[in-house]
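DM from R.C. (forwarded with permission)

"hey, sorry to bug you on a friday — could you get me a structure for this? deadline for the figure draft is monday and I only need the backbone to look sensible"
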Amino acid sequence: MAIFKRINRNAGRGSAARLAVAVGAVALVLSACSAGADAESDDSGLQTVTLAMDYLPNAMHGGLAYAMQEGLFADQGIKVKLISYNGSTGGSTVVASGKADLAIGENAAFDIGYFATGAPMRSIFIISPGNPTYLSVLKSSGITSPAQLAGKAHGGFGSPLEDEIVNQMIETDGGKDKIKQVVLNVGTYEALKAGQVDSTVTYPDGELQFANEGIDLVRFKQSDYGVPKQVMAVSTVLADNDFLEDHPDLARGFTTALQQGYEKAIEDPAAVTASVLAQFPDANLDEAITLNSAKVYAETSFPNSDGPIGTQSVEKTQVAADWMAGRGLLVDPDGKLLSSFDVSPYITNEYLPAVVAN
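My reply, with the result:
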């Protein structure tokens, strides 16, 4: 997953045009696969539901993989057809274009940006209310606080959201200058190791890779430096509005199986790691690194303080939206900057297996 990767297509000045270009590109890329919001039945009698992936397979997808491998979706009468991440187009863009029924969204902040620009979708499930990431620097750099990153190079994905998160951390820590983002898209860890950038965002798998190579990091948690926790929440499930209207039972069946999968991810990280490796054999995942990440996610990311697994908090998401608007990250469908945005029409627990009040 890359939680910062595509906010530049739906937030900031000129973002509406960027979103239109992205959606058009997705339509061209996916037109041949005919994955739309019309669920179809296959020979087994199962209803096919298309799910666009947010990023390359990893431990964050453990509950999904377990549900697929163990037949939990089939128990709900569903066959899940995955649309793989293609290296540039994430699930949010695919479902926003109407080319998938569902998608794993990059994170809550990306979702809010899409909602503000009028994307015809809603968030129906949150996989990871917790934030598994840190802003990290090499210990050998001598940097001991975010304020020292002012004016330095940050390895990122060209995202205004990423700029504002790091700049908020610098400001809260007393720094006066902004970061200089170096757009890498891939290879951020390698760039940090080589000293080409001073900071980047790290996940548990990457942190273990650094540790295995004997490289020490200094990590800063974003929420400790003024960034609302919900901004950093990752991996939501986004649903096409037409799909929800036409197939509410399939949406509820999907979340039922997914909830069971992520309950297992908390209970037994080893079991879901095995499922990830079996479901995505071509990803060439390292078993030890994937298991380590699964254990971290089971403790810090998947548990949900707002209710059963998958439950979303409109109030917390609104805090994130208010912060984004205050940082100039939200625009309406015409590209006009928004000073505020109400997220409540776009966040719902209605499709969870047991309806949870918003």
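R.C.: lifesaver. The chain has a mean pLDDT of 88.
me: no worries. DSSP finds 13 helices and eleven strands in the chain.
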